[in-house]
Amino acid sequence: MESKPQVAIFMDFENVALSAEDLYGKCDLNLIMNVAEQWGHSVIRRAYCDWTGFAQYQQDLIEYSFELTQLFRYSSRHRKNAADIQMVVDALETAFTHPEVNVFVLVTGDSDFSAVARKLRAYGKQVIGIGLRQSTSEVLVKACDHFVLYDTLIEDTRTSVYRLERARQLLLDVMRMLLPQVEGDAVNGSQLKMMMLKMDPTFNEADMGYPQFRNFLEAQSDLVKIALRDQVLWVSLKPAAMLEPAEDELLQYRLALSTAGLRLLDPHTRTDILLDLYTLFSEAAGVYTLDKAIIQLKVNYDTDNILRSREEVQEVARLVKYADVWLSPPQSWQLDALALRNDVQAQEFVDRSESAYLVVMIQNNLELQSAPLAQLLFGTLDQRARVDHLIDLAQQTYIQSQVLDKTQCAVGAGICYLNEIAELEQVLKELEAVRLEGPLSLEHAAELNREGLRVRMTNFEQAREHFIQAARIVCDLMAAGERGASRMDLEWYLASYCAATAGVHYFRVEYEQAKDYYLAFFALAKETEPVWEKVQRLVEPLLSFYFILAAGAQGELLEFRPGRTHPARMAIALYTDPNETIREQWLALVERLHQVNPAVLRIVIRRLETLEQTSPLPGTRETRLALERIVNP
Questions:
Q1: Parallel, antiparallel, or unpaired for β 101-107 and 67-70?
Q2: Taking CA atoms, which of 62, 176, 242, 613 is between 20 and 30 Å from 28?
Q3: Which secondary-structure segment (H or E) carries 224?
Q4: pLDDT band for position 247 (50/70/90)?
């Protein structure tokens, strides 16, 4: 095997993190590192920032073995110069002192770094840039050999599940077809890809985030093994994948979990982390939010030299969001301290948490069979009795979550539980009036959704039509009991429809109608609901647009662009606006939002608190106090 190129990563963290938080709620380091490491083996990793305002990221960066360079804040201008100069000096020093490093990844969008990018290329180095569309200079993009937009990475994570599962099934089908035709137990990689393209011309590993076909195969290590002999790639099926279960039930189960954002870990690791979470919440009732519990547990593991990644802890912690174990249901997993019910013991906590996998499958109308589920969840058929118990718990949880009898539904069984949400009344009427075009299938719904996501930034009208069509398909399939038709997808497509329709009315200057659809979106987009994983990145941009309705109704234009400004900064501008009517109308909008989704306002308050400590604007404290009076009257 050829040795991988050596990579140096230099991250202007404050530049990237602020922009990512304003648009998407947080900066996802996993996405950045996945891209950076596609170019080779990273041997140098450095991040530059005044860490006093970004302490929440320090642990993640340390786990990725970054050297954190502290840039003290004398003034905003001095700090910017310090970041630029220090990062440039370090990058050029690395080029001279580490000639073996031939790829430089610059995580920034600042045009000031275009000069160092050009100089590194002149020294024969390859320069890769990573930045956000709203804060990246075209000068820097042109100075790099390759530039990756963070925004595109975010979009890919939302829409790749169906494509990946179809590709995995295609891989299995072609391998099973070709193996009887070849000598031995391996297929030539080139022949494999040619046949996959023949069976499905739309297959493209790059669409799923893999730069080469080999990378795609390496990522499917549960299905295939690869080997390089005489510079030829050979692919063989793993023994478990050679079996052909009827309709590939395990694939359907995996697809349901992937769609819900749940990833299976090995059962021993999963159980250990759940027991440690139980201990943490038992010994410190009402102290930890779920987010803080994840951080504390990771600290405990590091202190005790137990190898557990932050990602593993986060994956397991997602399960407890489905579990009926809390003394009082939280509004927000990141803001509300949690306390267990007194009657919940350790094993019940583990069981109810692990039953989340089965709840998701029930929501997808999948038939639950003990044997394949035992193999999937625990890797052995000996656990069938335990799976039966988890199925019973999941069915109890599912029944308790149903609001109305299915016979009372407005549009079939798919939306019965949505009828009690007043803000969705008009949306459900529009859903009922939809005339479907195209096949009634989950694949068609997913394709409509992907097309809606693709065009929504340029054509709200077209996007909302795609979303409502997708929602109606899922609704009808849920009513028919179709396997894979899930409540999460229905809510995701409806939330996307509300967002796009609000955009239509906003740009038509129909602010009253826009308000109704923004509120419908926030009625669906609640942090404690599973759909939050799908719509989280839309929440803050839409909140900014919702806030600015107060100024638009008075015909006033603010200097901020709502889609590119954090709602906390928008709130300050509106609360301190010299026009008293605008302030009053904004407070009325906030009051109405608080009735629908109080947790999103609390997230804004937390951001205002951060701004007070780091870079306060005039009126920051007053705005925070005004919001706190509404949230805690």
A1: unpaired
A2: 613
A3: strand 224-229
A4: very low
- Structure tokens given for 571: 């709130």
Q: What is the pLDDT of residue 266?
A: 76
User: Residue 613 belongs to what domain range?
Assistant: 525-633
Quick one: 54 and 99 in the same domain? yes
> How far apart (Å, rounded) are the C-alpha atoms in residues 340 and 280?
10
- 174-218 pLDDT, tens per residue? 888 888 888 888 999 999 998 887 776 567 787 676 778 998 998
Which residue among 378, 401, 424 closes a domain? 401
User: Domain tally for the chain?
Assistant: 4
Which strands form 224-229's sheet, in the order they lie side by side?
187-188, 232-237, 224-229
Q: What is the predicted pLDDT for the residue at 288? A: 95
Q: Which two tokens stand for residue 552?
A: 């638009």
One-letter amino acid identity for 542? L
Q: Which tokens is 256 given? A: 């349901």
Residue 26 falls inside a structural domain: yes
CA distance 502 to 479: 28
Closest residue by Cα to residue 563 from 23, 158, 28: 23
Residue 49 and residue 96 in one domain? yes
- Report yes or no on 518 lying in a domain: no
Q: Does 396 lie in the same domain as 262?
A: yes
Same domain, 30 and 87: yes
Boundary residue ending a domain (193, 219, 244): 244
In terms of pTM, does the model score above 0.85? no
- Listed residue (566, 576, 584) closest to 621, CA to CA: 576
Residues 32 and 121 in one domain: yes
